[in-house]
Every structure is written in structure tokens, then in C-alpha cells.
Amino acid sequence: MVLIDTSVLSLILRRDKSDEHTEEFITLLTENRAFIIGPIRQELLSGISDERQFHLLKDKLKAIPEVPITSDDYERAASFFNICRKKGVQGSHVDFLICAVAYHNNMAIYTLDKDFFNFKKCIDIQLHL
After folding, report:
1. Confidence class of residue 66 from pLDDT cuts 50, 70 and 90?
2. Helices 38-45, 6-14: inter-axial angle, 10-degree rounding
3. Within 10 Å of residue 44's Cβ, how many Cβ atoms?
């Protein structure tokens, strides 16, 4: 199972033609191994001023199953944030929530965001390469 980060989906949605990330995402989705969390859905939909485009994207995103977030995930995200911060590694609260949900559900994270490679040096997460 793979948690798809905003960076991957954003890149795929902006491209007119297929690339290796698009192909990998399609493979994961076809194999029922691609998932997102609500905050990723929110990030992707935020800032779309055209209502028609907003609804088109909202409908497209419904094809990607969503992993529920638990109280334990939020607490683990805070712990991951604190561990990384003590080691001088900074990140957003959403990024650490992604790490926590992936950790809790034994998922790899598919991302293009270099911050996750720094997180991996401090916390036990898997990256989908």
C-alpha cells in the first residue's frame, strides 16, 4: 500500500502527457495500492477559483481511496515533528501527519518532496521510490 503525496498528484494533474510518475500512479491505482488522506485532498482542491475545475478535480479524486486518520496518528505526527526538530529537521504539520498515517498503516510514501528524505533519516518511514 502506498500513500500518494500532494507533490506527486499535483505534478500528474499539471502535465498534459504521461511520464514515469503518471505511469507509476496508474499502476498503483489499478492494483488498488494507491491511497490519500483528507489533508492531501484539501491541499489539492485549495486555491482552485474556477468552480467547474474544482468540481472536476473533486470528482477525479474520488477514485483514490482515503485512509482514515485516528487520534493516535495525530499524536504520532506530533512526536515525529518533535523528534525531527530535535535533530534540526523541519517540516510541516501535514507532512508529519502523512508520515504518521503511513507508519500506522505500514504504507510507503510516494513523494517528490525532498523533505521526506530528511525525515527518513530521523523517523521510521518507508518511501516509495
Report:
1. very high
2. 40
3. 19
Residue 46, amino acid: S
- Other beta carbons within 10 angstroms of residue 30's beta carbon come to 9
What lies within 8 Å, CB to CB, of 102 at 6+ separation is 3, 108, 109, 125, 126
> For residues 74 and 78, what is the distance between their CA atoms, to the nearest angstrom?
6
With H, G, I as helix, E, B as strand and everything else as coil, classify residue 20. helix
- Separation of alpha carbons 111 and 3, rounded Å: 9
What distance in Å separates the CA atoms of residue 99 and residue 96, rounded to the nearest whole number?
5
The CA distance from 61 to 77, in Å, is 24
Give all domains of the chain, ordered by start, each with its CATH number.
Answer: 1-129 (3.40.50.1010)
Q: What is the pLDDT of residues 6-57, one digit of tens each?
A: 999 999 988 777 789 999 999 999 999 999 999 999 999 998 999 999 999 9
